[in-house]
Amino acid sequence: MLRWCVVLFLGAMSVEARAQLPRALTEGMRLTNQVSRALALQSRMQKQVLEVALQGDACLAHWKAFRDSAEASSMPEAELLELIASVHEEVARCRTERQDNIRNLLPDSLKMRFNSLDEPALPNVLHFGLHNRMDCNVCVTPKPSRE
């Protein structure tokens, strides 16, 4: 009911008045900005990515509100922990679906670059333990050639 009151209130406001309301950047908006800058998207594609990202935000908001209401309830702690674990799975599913939907929007030429935005950086040292440091490609720095 409150949601519909807010929608009706915002609908009755003028465009100028709505523009002056403070807006917090949602996770989807931040993601859209990051993707748009990194991939140099055109405005039409930016709008499509934003629409998909905001759908993901709605999914996240639903599960976070569900978690908050469960935490405020008087259910036993064991049930609450089980419920929160399932909510974490659903939140992860929302984020994965959002990423997949954005990837599906992009042309094939940008999909690899989009995938690389999410990948963690490789560590500087890719090996551990005892080994022959004289024969190790990582440990031995190549000597500059004198030509």
Shape: flat
Discrete helix count:
6
Estimate the mean pLDDT confidence. Answer: 78
User: What is the subunit arrangement here?
Assistant: single chain
Give the number of DSSP strands: 0
C-alpha Rg (nearest Å): 24 Å
**End-to-end CA span:** 79 Å
What is the SS-derived class? mainly alpha
> H/E series, N to C?
HHHHHH
Assign a percent range to the helix content: 55-70%
Segments where pLDDT lies below 50 for 5+ residues?
A: 1-22
* Biggest sheet architecture: none
* Beta strand %: under 5%
Question: What does this 3D model show about the protein?
Answer:
- With 147 residues, this protein is mostly helical.
- The chain has a domain at 25-117.
- It is built from six helices and no strands.
- The longest helix is centred in the middle third of the chain and has 30 residues, at 43-72.
- Residues 1-22 have low confidence and may be disordered.
Helix-strand layout with pairing:
Elements: H1 2-12, H2 15-19, H3 27-39, H4 43-72, H5 77-105, H6 108-118
Helix pairs in contact: 3-4, 4-5
Summarize the structure.
67% of the residues lie in helices and 0% in strands. Helix 3 packs antiparallel against helix 4.
